[in-house]
Amino acid sequence: MSILLMLGSGPQAVQAREWPKEGFDRILAINNAYLLRPDWDLMIHPWDFPPKRVPQAGAGQQIVTEDDFVPAQNAFGGFVYAGATMAFTAAYWALHALRPRVIAAFGCDMHYPASGPTHFYGTGTPDPLRPDITLRNLEAKSARLMVLAARAGCAMVNLSDGPSRLVFPRVGLGDLAGVQPVAFDPQAVEAALAREAALGYMVASGRYWEVADRFDPAELDALDALWMAAAGF
Hints:
This protein is α/β, with parallel strands linked by helices. Helices cover 29% and strands 11% of the residues. It is built from 6 helices and 6 strands, in the order E-E-E-E-H-H-H-E-H-E-H-H. A 6-stranded parallel beta sheet has the order 4-3-2-1-5-6.
């Protein structure tokens, strides 16, 4: 496939209601973002997403659960290194399962104003801001994703024009056909991956919080710095 729209629940996401489906090969809705468009192709949600809010998949639609995305994220090093937010998880799953040329994020900025709506449906829980060993540096986690996607031949871009914790290049809808993966430092990437392997923080079950005492925050901070450097920051 070519272009995947990865749709989150940020306030700006309502704009995507009007976008023509022809601009994308598939639409991947994260959690409640499926409410924005009935023509979604894929909906991904975590284990604790309320069952009553899981939509009924229609013809050609697929629900993606932890049975699908935990092995996919493990193929990219696991949750501790990648960052345990559904935006990052959805992208790693898509890289593994769909192999798109472009993943265009919208409504996935992880920016939460102190007042006013935090999500398109009002005020929600700012999940990426919870105290979590995997979320100490969201910018570094997005840099890691962007670089590993580029390594696989996929461009990670951000369609949002508002504040964002993502470091992906900003593009407009009309630019998607021509975007290319970002340049990166191959030696720096290998060094970061080697450090991950040496630390051995991958948790195959995905439930990293059950063994959180295994992880050294200082080591993860140093690893985040390696990924930022690999992406040129």
